[in-house]
Amino acid sequence: MTDGITKVTSHISPNEQLIFERSQQGRIGYRLPALDVDESPIDELLPQEFRRDDDLEGVPEVSEVDVIRHFVRMSTWNYSIDLGMYPLGSCTMKYNSRLNERVARIAGFANLHPLTEEHDAQGALQVIYELEQHLAEITGLPGISLQPAAGAHGEMTGIMIIRAFLDARDGANASGRRTMLIPDSAHGTNPASAHLSGFSVKTIRSTAEGLTDLDHLRELCSHGDVAGLMLTNPNTLGLFERNIKQICDIVHEAGGLVYMDGANMNALVGIARPGDMGVDVIHLNLHKTFSTPHGGGGPGSGPCCCTKELEPFLPIPRVVKTDWTVGEPTFRFEYNRPQSIGRVKAFFGNYGMMLRALSYILTHGNDGLREATEAAVLNARYIANGLTPDYDKPFSSPPMHEVVFTDKRQTRKGVHTLDIAKRLIDYGFHPMTIYFPLIVQGAMLIEPTESVGRQELDQFIAAMRSIANEALEDPELVRSAPNSTRIGRLDEAAAARKPVLRWKPKSD
Amino acid sequence: MTDGITKVTSHISPNEQLIFERSQQGRIGYRLPALDVDESPIDELLPQEFRRDDDLEGVPEVSEVDVIRHFVRMSTWNYSIDLGMYPLGSCTMKYNSRLNERVARIAGFANLHPLTEEHDAQGALQVIYELEQHLAEITGLPGISLQPAAGAHGEMTGIMIIRAFLDARDGANASGRRTMLIPDSAHGTNPASAHLSGFSVKTIRSTAEGLTDLDHLRELCSHGDVAGLMLTNPNTLGLFERNIKQICDIVHEAGGLVYMDGANMNALVGIARPGDMGVDVIHLNLHKTFSTPHGGGGPGSGPCCCTKELEPFLPIPRVVKTDWTVGEPTFRFEYNRPQSIGRVKAFFGNYGMMLRALSYILTHGNDGLREATEAAVLNARYIANGLTPDYDKPFSSPPMHEVVFTDKRQTRKGVHTLDIAKRLIDYGFHPMTIYFPLIVQGAMLIEPTESVGRQELDQFIAAMRSIANEALEDPELVRSAPNSTRIGRLDEAAAARKPVLRWKPKSD
Amino acid sequence: MLEAIGLKSAEELFDSIPQELLLKRPLNTPAALSEIELLNRFEQMGKRNAGAGRPSFLGGGAYSHYIPTIVDHILTRSEFFTAYTPYQPEISQGTLQTIFEFQTLVCQLTGMEVANASMYDGSTALAEAVLMAERVTRRSKAIASSSVHPQYLEVIKTYVQHAGIHLDLVSFDSLTGQSAAALADAVDDETAALVVQSPNFFGCIEDVAKLADAAHAKGALLVVAVTEAMSFGALKTPGACGADIVVAEGQSFGVPLSFGGPYVGLFATREKYARQIPGRLVGEAFDRQGRRGFVLTLATREQHIRREKATSNICTNEGLIALAATVYMETMGRRGIQEAAHQCLQKAAYAARRIASVKGFSLPFSGPRFNEFVVRGPLDAGELLSRLGKDKGIEGGIPLWRFFPDWPNDFLVCVTETNTRAEIDALVEGLGSVSNQ
Amino acid sequence: MLEAIGLKSAEELFDSIPQELLLKRPLNTPAALSEIELLNRFEQMGKRNAGAGRPSFLGGGAYSHYIPTIVDHILTRSEFFTAYTPYQPEISQGTLQTIFEFQTLVCQLTGMEVANASMYDGSTALAEAVLMAERVTRRSKAIASSSVHPQYLEVIKTYVQHAGIHLDLVSFDSLTGQSAAALADAVDDETAALVVQSPNFFGCIEDVAKLADAAHAKGALLVVAVTEAMSFGALKTPGACGADIVVAEGQSFGVPLSFGGPYVGLFATREKYARQIPGRLVGEAFDRQGRRGFVLTLATREQHIRREKATSNICTNEGLIALAATVYMETMGRRGIQEAAHQCLQKAAYAARRIASVKGFSLPFSGPRFNEFVVRGPLDAGELLSRLGKDKGIEGGIPLWRFFPDWPNDFLVCVTETNTRAEIDALVEGLGSVSNQ
Ligand SMILES: Cc1ncc(COP(=O)(O)O)c(C=O)c1O
Ligand SMILES: Cc1ncc(COP(=O)(O)O)c(C=O)c1O
Predict the structure, then answer these.
(1) Which whole-number Å values give the CA distances from A318 to A344, A348, A357, in the listed order?
(2) CA distance linking residue A181 with residue A178, whole number of Å
(3) Please, which residues bridge with residue D369 across strands?
């Protein structure tokens, strides 16, 4: 192995079977109080035909120690932010403050039932209200719903709002406006969300500079069918759409609305506001910009923020402030909003994430929010600088919070983006986002976030440069990576061909 | 590597520097509220000569993320109970229930100041009182002090009680009784504690069977100088001293008292009681038998339990029940105990460990306590059986909760206990206790505890047998172990010759 | 560092943003709080949630079950909660194997063949099930009983409004509290999905097998929603009853109430529909040396590859909550889930019996139930329950007027294994006394 | 499994125990409680500790400092809290490197050259320091000021009673609250250790440098005890003042009050005495490939090797609490420890000023102080403080009559960075009002 590998060493790592393979009849790991009411004969309560008759066969029987060891062992197979930088472009993997976790576990919130009467849940409503206020200030968009459970959910919500607005504005004519424009660089959820909302998608080209092609946009807007545009800004190449104002004007003039995918707000918080750019509606990812933990794939929270004009269309219910009693504001849910697109989720959204995000905003303070943005952009720039000598940087402009490189120089030796990513694992780093955005051949999208210091950035740059060197001198080493993990590259094609999606007892 | 290694695989493991090597001027990881009182000029509060003048140079400056990553990374280098069985003989490494941890963190206990007035700390006193009651029942010894902070501390306390008793009983004559008898198999803390209490130590031989040599004991008891005997039971070879009653009689007849090291109570709880055997005083290790976590070396808690006769000599203060108000008992501290040996620690002992131990006793229940003992002994027996074909078992009697083997058969090929232990690491197991007790050449003392299932016991036995095989066929493989850890055997001799006990800046 | 990249000030980092778009003032959000201040602040707000501290009989889609202490310990392992979606299997096997176990457990509990890696919650899972039924059957009508959770129905409406799917509601039977006979009759050749919840919003168990037959007779899929996952421990599985898609809210399995989220949607179906499932799937795979591992699979269904043609727009799901549910299901295990379900059943029966004997109170529905039931009181339920909260410190139930304005005196009571007999007795007594004020 | 080893019943496992010694009945301890019941039980008992929930000005050897949230997160990492003493360095480097950092930080804060891996607490560390001074000097007298924490003095007495060491107490100066001039004079050629605490039990800072000179002039060691470790952030280090052994209670650094334990004893000395230190030491070491690691070292001092000739009987120490302190010191870091110390100093000064201005209250001692001070009130302090607790819900201080029966009206007040100005003002007001009842 290369001397350049400074971040990791090889060590023993525990194996662990599936829990079903560990199960032993008769073992238990739970302790419930004894039933303290008079027991009724089961037949009186539940007719036989409604009762489960398989005795839950197959569900594991294990002890508490078994469970602890099972998960602790498996956990050690994961990379995580707490182990080091996690430079997944577009994902904004930043540090998840322990304090926010503690806040979310305060009994007054954690044990609160969502259908508690409002007067017994004032603190909970206050949190929603305050968080909305802050997000409105940060985005410059005053109408907020915290109901969406993730970014894609927020997109669907926002696009449905656009549709409801157009229907209200144009009446029957709105049926002629069913085209959503989406750049070729957009995240896959954008077209999928547009589709869910009943729009057909037209793709806008990007320029050689990596920005929205204004001419193409104008052309697409000339047919009268445009409902709106979904734009990510900074876009998925990490570049600020400097013509954003003009873009919004073009779409607005064509009678459409502008949706901004706010996944990249970590480049803008405290610096610039979508509302000031002409954007009509945006979703935020609290699990990116506002640091709520990704948890191995979720939960997220995707607030939808819109202009005053679009506010009537937001999902129900909304939280409104009523009056002040003894110094404390009081709040209630408002359900009677006839123009609302409806409800996108039971209850009020991923409430626990709201607590964490509010805690993030309050512990950072306004200065801290801006400083985090500056650090995130600075770190990305630093990496951009550090990697330019060895990797192809397809767009020359300086990036914002993330930067895209390609494998162009390495492919000559048969080394591709996937190989570079896998080789980074040997160096102890989680790879960057790869092959996204789709318009960049062999894309490597790198987003360091603010949660990493210079030492580790330097280590990362050194690792990448060392890999570039290996690609020249020992390409097979890179192509066979990772070589130091407990498992090698898995045969994903075979897995998809004959999917095994669950455990079954051997005898089956 | 051998195919027999089933418990671990090689994987990447994060490196991490010393925190001092990570420090960067100006970084901070703390957040305190702003000072909210009028600030006085420092000279008015603290004359210059009393003030620190080095600006805390050298103390690290790091961010919160730095600290998290620092410790999370370092933590991954540790073996732990949560990763698997930890068969350290004499150490009783059993599962540490998460529930007990939660109990210890209940605000009403965690935030309670030790000098709170009694009436505002009744719950805390109740816990002490109840735990004492239960320990008295378990040991059959009614006088309890929870003040000692660990086993050795409990030993010192118990031995000082014996001394105080003898002084009270014999007056000036007691100065003729300053010999403490200790078996050659005893733990090192025993003689050290006896010494701290002003006794000189005489060593009793063990028989070929591994038990106390009664003849030798009689002989040693014949000189009139014996203050007492310190005996571990089951002894450190894992054997029950079946002559315990006779042993106690001999010592008592010689005018001495019997101290029992209760480190091995995991073999007895619910099965037999030291008080019923004639023992006068014992310490327990709550961090062994009662499952409070070892925490990488502590904290412990070493309650001292004694007969009614010795009770007046226990450390002050003691908790006593006063009366009952509205259904709730009330408690107070009693300080006025003129015969007490005094205080062995500020405040009342390692209180947090008492909470955990009480929780352990209450969640197990009386049946569960006995079942745990049975399982612990059964597991040790199972291992004893499984290893006998390949390893020398110096004592033929069936063991209690732990079993000793030796490297006798392996030394022929130049493989020693240390090598076997290190090779176990390659197999994914924490080694057993080695070279203890001292009387067994090349001892390997194995204590599985009740916290391990048959699957892992079988894996352990298979690993040990595989190593025995390797010792025959490829002794160098064993001698050079561990081969799969992030660091190899360290040069301990060099480290002790020129000790580096702290980090210093390079320039020094 | 600025210097190292040739910049003089932090402002220069944002040179690519046009001047006029820069925010030239500090954000009007509060200044930074220290840890002490922040915790005080949230604890104060938490105290304004009186409902959180009381004995509670609230259900209706979110349930108070006991959460074993180890669940949160595992959840707060850095390696789990600070990891991303397992895109790189070589360093994500912890998450991947957990999801594979989750999928298996969901299959076992629902009696189905395949399950996905989670949906946002039960309500969105149900809406996605309707969309999936449309994809599978290529039909455009959905029929649902009005005994489905009203908020779930609202979510379906939102999701299908632009998908060309027509949603028909059939009123439930007001004697039994179960879906009406008319529901089965409403299924026709255009019907993609027959949607039913069991136990339903009123706590009544539906005759799922009969509805399955009705749906299948017309070539429609039966979609069964379950909001109280604990019922899987006692009731015949939807799979055994013939359901084609089963969705459930997994909150009952180790997830705090947390004012409604994050929860976790369970989604299971038959193997033949695996390629129509929304969301992520984890499957078994092997490396070149034949070592077993797990990977995200069948990704061609998903938005990042299929874009507008994907089976769903979902990307981030509820990974960590699925982990909580997995730890819960494994810790409770076969016997624990059975035992908890049994206690729910018995305690609810006890409570129902006792409440029905209080003067002025009755149980309007005759259908069999698991752990929830509707109570009809002698006065406005909102008023009654509010008195009960204030005077007795008990959260007694959910007034139904919010969802069914015609039934001012009705409320929904839920009893779980966490409600002691003393609490139930206090509820019974409290209902009697506050209704006599 | 019984079968596998040829046994028929669990009883046979205990065949080696004579029949008459077997307990032939169930233990008379309670039957098993479930998690729910157990938590209820402890929470109920916890509520009987009213003192835990109140604003508090209690110090006297245990201090309320803010504990950053991350401390407990790291403490509850399985790899730390469920590990044993690091006997096998290849799989214990996490613990070992942490201890090495702990030792270094203790040296930095105390101004000393070497430190050990921890002692049980401050009081036992102090007693062991006296024993060590005897070993180093081969003299058998210890002289201590009565301004040392009374419980620490009691512990020394217990420890030295059979060690042939004579302990002399010299009364403190009742005007300054510092040790008396007579203390220095008491040191003679027989003296092994001069023992002083600074800030002392009354919160007064001692002139450690002067005492060091006095001790050294006679060939004795100066042993300095510190109960309030936060003072290291502001006061001249004992090391800089010439101390030979410094012991401290580390509880102030990230350790909950927990009714007095577990805490952690810090123990530091000069390099030349390293081989006389009690307890464990971790040192740097290298493997054959030159990779750096850490090991337990100088083990020949310890009981498991030297047995009765060991430097101490200590084996298990306070590893996990040392970890907490390490996380605390690193999180707070250079500036945080300074800032917290500064706030303690300033807030205590503010409180002292304000209390002294209340009618009937005075500050009897003139010595400089850090964050604790003695207040003399107009009535019995026990009575006064008990009223303050009951009526105002404030834990106002520690009545000194427990330790000094002659001073019924005196009490010890401690102020830290966690006490807000509002709390201090409430204390001041409360003292005024309850003393006027
Ligand atoms: C640019 C972009 N848009 C949308 C999304 C979708 O957000 P979510 O995964 O929260 O649904 C993502 C996240 O992966 C993204 O990176
Ligand atoms: C037999 C025996 N006695 C005494 C002790 C000392 O206990 P502690 O480490 O708690 O001081 C131990 C623990 O290591 C032991 O195994």
Answers:
(1) 12, 9, 18
(2) 10
(3) D204
Match 């033949």 to its residue by tokens: C272
What is the interface pTM, i.e. ipTM, of the complex?
Answer: 0.97
**DSSP per residue, D330-356:** HHHHHHHHHHHHHHHHHHHHHHHHHHH
Per DSSP, the residues of A42-70 read: HHHHS-GGGB--STTTTS----HHHHHHH
Q: How many CB pairs (< 8 A) connect B and C?
A: 22
Band of pLDDT at residue A3, cut at 50, 70 and 90: low
Q: Tell me the β-bridge partners of C195.
A: C144, C223
What distance in Å separates the CA atoms of residue B249 and residue B259, rounded to the nearest whole number?
A: 13
The average confidence (pLDDT) of chain B is 96
Contact residues, chain C, for A38 at CB < 8 Å: 350
At B437-487, the pLDDT tens digits run 999 999 999 999 999 999 999 999 999 999 999 999 999 999 999 999 999
Backbone angles phi, psi at D403, to 5 degrees: -105, -30
Share of chain B above pLDDT 70, in %: 98
> Taking CB atoms and an 8 Å limit, are D82 and B51 in contact across chains?
no
Please give the Cα distance from A402 to A384 (Å, whole number). 9
Contact A73, A15 (CB under 8 A): yes
Number of A:C CB contacts under 8 A?
Answer: 657
Measured from the CB, is residue B236 less than 6 Å from ligand 2? yes
Is there a contact between C162 and A198 (Cβ–Cβ < 8 Å)? yes
| Start-to-end Cα distance in chain B | 44
In whole angstroms, give the CA distance from residue C195 to residue C175: 20
Are the C-beta atoms of residues C155 and C123 closer than 8 Å to each other? yes
E strand segments, A220-327? 226-232, 257-261, 281-283, 304-306, 318-325
Q: Is the pLDDT of residue D218 over 60?
A: yes
- The DSSP secondary-structure symbol of D389 reads I
Six-digit token string for D355: 């209390």
**Nearest residue of A to residue B74 by CA position?**
A83
- Contact call for A12 and B426, based on CB within 8 A: yes
Residue A1 reports pLDDT greater than 50: no
- Ligand that comes closest to the CA of residue A437: 1
User: Does pLDDT of A231 surpass 50?
Assistant: yes
Q: List, as one string, the DSSP characters of C230-283.
A: GGGGTBPPHHHHT-SEEEEE-TTTT---GGG-S--EEEEE-GGGGGG--S--EE
Distance between CA C266 and CA C237 in Å, rounded? 14
Mutate to test the pocket of ligand 1, among A187, A260, A353 (most ligand atoms within 8 A of CB): A187
* Of residues C262, C260, C196, C198, the one with CA closest to residue C228: C198
Contacts of B155 (CB under 8 A, 6+ apart): B189, B190, B193, B194, B230, B259, B261, B283, B302, D313
The answer to whether D201 touches D149, Cβ cutoff 8 Å, is yes
- Window 434-453 of A: residues touching B by CB (8 A cutoff) are 451-453
CA distance B289 to A223: 80
Phi, psi of B298 (to 5 degrees): 145, 175
Q: For chain B, percent helix, then strand, then coil, each to nearest 5?
A: 40, 15, 45
Separate counts of helices (H) and strands (E) for chain A: 17, 13
DSSP D298-324: -GGGSHHHHGGGSS----S--HHHHHH
Cα→Cα distances B303→B139, B313, B336, C236, Å:
11, 14, 20, 53
Answer whether D252's CB lies under 8 Å from D65's CB: yes
Q: Hey, what are D144's tokens?
A: 């201590």
Residues in CB range of B30: below 8 A, 6 or more apart:
D68, D331, D332, D333, D335, D336, D339, D340
Instruction: Give how far Cα A254 sits from Cα of A215, A258, A406, Å.
Output: 14, 11, 36
Ramachandran assignment for D222, one of left (phi > 0), alpha (psi -120 to 50 degrees), beta (any other)? beta
